[in-house]
């Protein structure tokens, strides 16, 4: 039986826009297209797994931050926070649209060496200029606000609680998908397995589905997450997107902290945050971090015992007595070239659009990127945020646009 809202085959032989992948980015692109006054075309979303069980969107930690090294990423997050806060109003209210809550626990990056402390200070100056509320705290200032940390090795911290914290990312995506469907976007349960190019190779004329159908398209949007590289290859395009495994853990503490725990990025790379009353969420990955098969969901249980728990207990002694209640593996759709998303049309195959490669911050940037794709399709230009730094052309030219604040 098909999940609600999905059809088993496209109802038309041709669509103005075919979106490959129907999770956060595919649904954001679809919804913003329906919202744009300059677009009235037909949209098909092709989703290979309507349960979304393995999609990063369903396995995410659902946090949002302003603390980036690139100003454009700060602006994307500002729009993301605004969109989450006003979700019901933006989608027109009604029984089917949930209220989304942004739990502003903040992020705290801890620096244990001068080079990272200097990087945090430079980032803070840029973020403040962009209107973010980031401040640099000395160890004494951190201890005054959060007395539970061990800070002997820490030189400074970078903290912001405004528009930083966690929200229900699945509700964000599912609300956009439901709304897009109600406005006429068709979601089909199938898989794009190939593309037919025009004779000179500059246009995708049709996508081929696993069911055997060929669907003609005006534009294709690659919103296929970790499979973004494979989808690009169908159009003869190279894209450096890899699946990188990220492990998440939920635990309770015998003695819970007396105040909310910010999303704390330990110098080891392990991060931990409040996850509701008395519950905490930690995450990280082993030092060896190869590209993996997008279907590889084996869990490395030793990582918790050998790295995560000892690191947490070392930084927050109250976490010596904790009980692991849940853990899962997921994949970042990692852009190995420069850790930034890829957005917009390819230079040569001009109706092939990217909206993928967000390297661990794609949930919070879903609204900004979906809006950007819709603007480009409807008008040929960015009307709100200029997202041109994310274009694939930088990869073709070998000119990385590096985001350094990757968690
Ligand atoms: C553990 C973890 C923690 C994270 N934490 C955060 C966080 O705190 N904040 C944040 O902003 N981001 C976070 N992220 C990243 C965020 O979850 C992703 O960037 C975002 O969900 C990506 O959405 P997507 O739609 O691009 O990809 P996905 O959610 O992976 O969806 C891609 C979809 O495309 C479909 N698909 C693929 N190929 C095809 C095909 N050929 N035909 C049809 N369908 C296809 C797939 O089935 C899938 O449903 C985290 C990710 C992980 C794994």
The overall strand count is 20
Question: What general outline do the C-alpha atoms trace?
Answer: globular
Q: Report the span from N to C terminus.
A: 38 Å
> What structural class is derived from the secondary structure elements?
alpha/beta
**C-alpha Rg (nearest Å):** 21 Å
**Which stretches are low in confidence, meaning pLDDT under 50 for 5 or more residues running?**
none
Number of domains: 2
The hetero molecules present are: flavin-adenine dinucleotide
Determine the number of helices (DSSP H or I, runs of at least 4 residues). Answer: 11
Q: Mean pLDDT across all residues, rounded?
A: 97
SS strand fraction: 25-35%
Given this structure, which CATH class of the largest domain is correct? Alpha Beta
Helix content: 25-40%
Quick structural gist:
The chain has 407 residues and is an alpha/beta fold. The protein has 11 helices and 20 strands.
Structural key phrases:
407 residues; alpha/beta; FAD/NAD(P)-binding domain; D-Amino Acid Oxidase, Chain A, domain 2; 9-stranded mixed β-sheet; 11 helices; binds flavin-adenine dinucleotide
């Amino acid at each position: 039986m098909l999940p609600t809202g999905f059809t088993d085959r496209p109802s038309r032989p041709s669509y103005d826009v075919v979106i490959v992948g129907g999770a956060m980015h595919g649904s954001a692109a679809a919804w913003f297209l329906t919202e744009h006054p300059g677009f009235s075309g037909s949209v098909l979303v092709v989703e290979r797994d309507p349960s979304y069980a393995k999609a990063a969107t369903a396995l995410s930690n659902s946090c949002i931050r302003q603390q980036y090294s690139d100003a454009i990423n700060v602006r994307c997050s500002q729009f993301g926070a605004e969109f989450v806060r006003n979700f019901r109003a933006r989608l027109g209210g009604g029984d089917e649209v949930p209220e989304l809550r942004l739990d502003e626990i903040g992020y705290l990056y801890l620096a244990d060496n001068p080079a990272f402390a200097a990087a945090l200070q430079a980032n803070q100056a840029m973020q403040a200029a962009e209107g973010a509320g980031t401040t640099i705290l000395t160890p004494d200032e951190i201890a005054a606000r959060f007395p539970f940390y061990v800070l002997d090795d820490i030189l400074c911290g970078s903290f912001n609680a405004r528009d930083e914290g966690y929200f229900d990312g699945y509700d964000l995506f599912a609300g956009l998908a439901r709304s897009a469907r109600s406005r006429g976007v068709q979601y089909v349960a199938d898989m794009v397995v190939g593309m037919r190019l025009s004779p000179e190779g500059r246009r995708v004329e049709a996508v081929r589905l696993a069911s055997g159908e060929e669907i003609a398209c005006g534009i294709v949007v690659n919103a296929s997450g970790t499979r973004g590289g494979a989808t690009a290859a169908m159009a003869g395009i190279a894209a450096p997107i890899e699946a990188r495994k990220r492990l998440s853990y939920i635990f309770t503490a015998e003695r819970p902290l007396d105040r909310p725990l910010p999303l704390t990025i330990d110098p080891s790379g392990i991060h931990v945050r409040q996850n509701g009353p008395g519950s905490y969420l930690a995450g990280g990955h082993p030092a060896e971090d190869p590209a993996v098969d997008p279907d590889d969901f084996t869990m490395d249980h030793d990582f918790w015992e050998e790295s995560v728990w000892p690191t947490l207990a070392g930084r927050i002694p109250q976490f010596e007595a904790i009980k692991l209640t849940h853990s899962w593996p997921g994949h970042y759709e990692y852009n190995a070239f420069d850790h930034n998303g890829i957005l917009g049309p390819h230079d040569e195959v001009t109706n092939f659009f990217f909206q993928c490669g967000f390297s661990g911050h794609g949930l919070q940037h879903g609204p900004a990127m979906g809006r950007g794709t819709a603007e480009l399709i409807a008008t040929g230009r960015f009307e709100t945020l200029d997202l041109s730094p994310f274009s694939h052309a930088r990869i073709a030219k070998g000119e990385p646009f590096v985001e350094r604040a990757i968690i």
